[in-house]
């Protein structure tokens, strides 16, 4: 079976973007691939140094993934910090990553702008740790959203440099989505993507209650509507159509699309419909996650079992990496 790896940071509650960019693909891949999915708690420290909520967030990410359909019997679910081999590979890869390329990474520039008081080296080397997460299992496919495309390209570069310098060990991992393109779920205010830690009122969380979902959807940015048939669609309206096509029936989306083209669309009606379809989509996941979250010991056991399996795979890689790099003299 081809090997698959992906992770989600424990930086808060999961949202629609995480679901459609990542989790939905995890669930679809679990039958036919060897899957390693992890909660990225080390990655969380780059932007969330306060760890009071960390454990809660780790367990929440796990519960929401299982609620979305992941089966712990079929996939290896673990916490990043429980697999120290990842840190060792990260160290080795750091010698093959250059300051210039790391400084040019879009996510680094964005995050550095957001937290000028804490531009730490972990933030700068985030793509290196992400490459280590993937390469530690010698994965071929990485189901991620569009925001991770550049990181994947860097992971391929680091893998290639390692292979070239020390000998063939890593395949070139590819970003993966079942559709043709990687997904980006836009935020409801028309600016940027839905995200765990930014823009919380413009992001729909899998834990939001029905009224909050309705309120957020009704607040999504619209205008008074087109005045002429076949007008150009503004980006923020295109985003609402995009979000609608994720959770509503195709016929519903088509109806509003033709209303738009006839210049007869009523955005209030469209948002009401979207709100109800969104409630129908989110509420069963939320209910399952709440139930799972109550069984903290059960969640811990799942992660302990997962960490054991993940470490076995990681140790195989790190032994090879040490040998190829020439670090075997102490063994
Ligand atoms: P944070 O705001 O803390 O950076 P995040 O919401 O961006 O968090 P990550 O943990 O960085 O989430 O990413 C987890 C997965 O979800 C990744 O595969 C990422 O590509 C995907 N993802 C995150 N946001 C979106 C989005 N709006 N649309 C599509 N995919 C997304």
UniProtKB/TrEMBL annotation:
Residues bound to ATP: 9-11, 17-18, 145-147, 185, 193-197
Subcellular localization(s) per the UniProt record: Cytoplasm
Catalytic activity: tRNA(Trp) + L-tryptophan + ATP = L-tryptophyl-tRNA(Trp) + AMP + diphosphate + H(+)
Source species, domain of life: Bacteria
Main subcellular location of this protein, as a coarse class: cytoplasm
EC number from the UniProt entry: 6.1.1.2
Entries under Pfam families matching the protein: tRNA-synt_1b
Broad enzyme group: ligase
Role this protein plays: Catalyzes the attachment of tryptophan to tRNA(Trp).
HAMAP family, per database record: Trp_tRNA_synth_B (MF_00140_B)
Record's protein name: Tryptophan--tRNA ligase
Species annotation: Flaviaesturariibacter amylovorans
Organism phylogeny: Bacteria, Pseudomonadati, Bacteroidota, Chitinophagia, Chitinophagales
């Amino acid at each position: 079976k081809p090997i698959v790896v992906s992770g989600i940071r424990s930086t808060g509650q999961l949202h629609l973007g995480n679901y459609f960019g990542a989790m939905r693909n995890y669930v679809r891949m679990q039958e036919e691939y060897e899957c390693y999915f992890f909660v990225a708690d080390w990655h969380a420290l780059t932007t969330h140094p306060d760890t009071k909520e960390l454990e809660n967030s780790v367990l929440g990410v796990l519960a929401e993934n299982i609620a979305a359909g992941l089966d712990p019997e079929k996939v290896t679910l673990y916490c990043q910090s429980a697999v120290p081999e990842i840190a060792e590979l990260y160290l080795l890869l750091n010698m093959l990553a250059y300051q210039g390329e790391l400084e040019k990474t879009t996510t680094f520039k964005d995050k550095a702008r957001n937290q000028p008081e804490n531009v730490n080296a972990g933030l700068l080397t985030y793509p290196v740790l992400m490459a280590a997460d993937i390469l530690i299992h010698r994965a071929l496919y990485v189901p991620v959203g569009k925001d991770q495309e550049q990181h994947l390209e860097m992971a391929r570069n680091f893998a290639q440099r390692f292979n070239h310098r020390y000998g063939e060990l890593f395949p070139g991992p590819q970003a993966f989505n079942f559709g043709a393109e990687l997904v980006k779920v836009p935020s409801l205010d028309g600016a940027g993507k839905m995200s765990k830690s930014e823009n919380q009122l413009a992001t729909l969380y899998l834990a939001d209650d029905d009224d909050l979902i309705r309120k957020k959807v009704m607040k999504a940015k619209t205008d008074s509507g087109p005045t002429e048939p076949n007008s150009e669609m503004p980006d923020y309206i295109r985003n609402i159509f995009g979000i609608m096509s994720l959770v509503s029936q195709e016929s519903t989306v088509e109806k509003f699309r033709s209303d738009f083209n006839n210049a007869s669309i009523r955005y209030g009606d469209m948002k009401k419909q979207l709100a109800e379809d969104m409630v129908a989509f989110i509420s069963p996941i939320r209910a399952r996650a709440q139930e799972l979250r109550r069984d903290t010991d059960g969640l811990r056991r799942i992660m302990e079992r997962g960490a054991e399996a993940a470490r076995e795979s990681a140790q195989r890689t790190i032994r090879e990496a040490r040998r190829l790099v020439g670090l075997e003299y102490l063994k």
